[in-house]
Prior knowledge:
alpha/beta, five-stranded mixed sheet, 36% helix, 373 residues
Amino acid sequence: MEDFIYYNGKKYRKGYTTGTCAAAAAKACVEMILTQEEVSAVQVTTTGGTILEIPVAHQQFSKNKATAAVQKDGGDDIDATHGMWIFVDVELTDSAEVVLDGGVGIGRATQKGISVAVGEAAINPAPRKNILATVRESLGENRGANILVYAPEGEERAKRTMNSNLGIIGGISILGTTGIVTPMSDEGWKKSLSMELEMKRNQGLDQIILVPGNYGDDFVQNTLGFSSNNIVSMSNFVGYMLKETQRLAFKKVLMVGHFGKLVKVSAGIFTTYSKDADARAEILVANLALLGAPLPLLQEVEQCNTTEAAGELIEAAGYTQVYDVIAQKIKARSERFLKFTKPSVEIDVVTFSTERGLLAATKDIDVLREEWR
């Protein structure tokens, strides 16, 4: 596949998803059964309508059964499944039904709330539909087949994905909304975060704890003592995930994160990648100045590379009230971000330091514990 995008002045090659791999391998199997000849490549139409020529390997066939595999090519987007082999077995049957299932290395859903029913193989609806349509087109209307998708490396590769958070156990998911992998795109990552949020909502939760990552998750469970069941990662996509909580009609959101990450939100920065927006020192200096901090302290804080280093200076100078001020601004900015759309969402904030622990909260911690127990 030779299709490219440009990002920050660099050229990146696109790839194709595990769903497209499975569809291509399945089509190759059907063609080998029907022609009794080896197939080395097939043309498939992706879920997004793009026509691709996909190479095929590991071919075996007999009168009614065939095996083929396609190597996942993520282009220049090196994700958890890049380079792994997606295998498919197809066996013709006497019925007219085409049945699709997952085998070794394909995860199975163990929790309600995602787009795959409990007990089913983690083959998402869009690629499932595409695989079945691809096989049906090659097979014709009057024949049936059993299709088995499997991935020998799947269980190991799944450890690098969010599947366990979604209750998908035993392997990878077969994914692909468009069938194409676009390098440097955050869309897949966002969708996986949304899936976890949707699962929590479908399980009946109406309040959620958003954390930027592992530090926040650990603080919620081990310092605050809250249940892990309410926690969902928002990564750097603070604004996106806040909008998602509103779309899904969550009533309460508690944002818990390291001060160095959440401080940006107090200034209206809702995508917190450092490469995109790093105004931590400037935000601290401005808020300290409004509290009357002396110029030498402001100059020292402005030169700090981390909020942890700045925190030492702030504590020594007796200006730790700045954390309460900024926590309230994070809350206010976040609620303002959502206020023009319904339903309303109540937001609270807890922020901490790895060196000094809890820094500030918009409600008394004991009150929050009562609300979130």
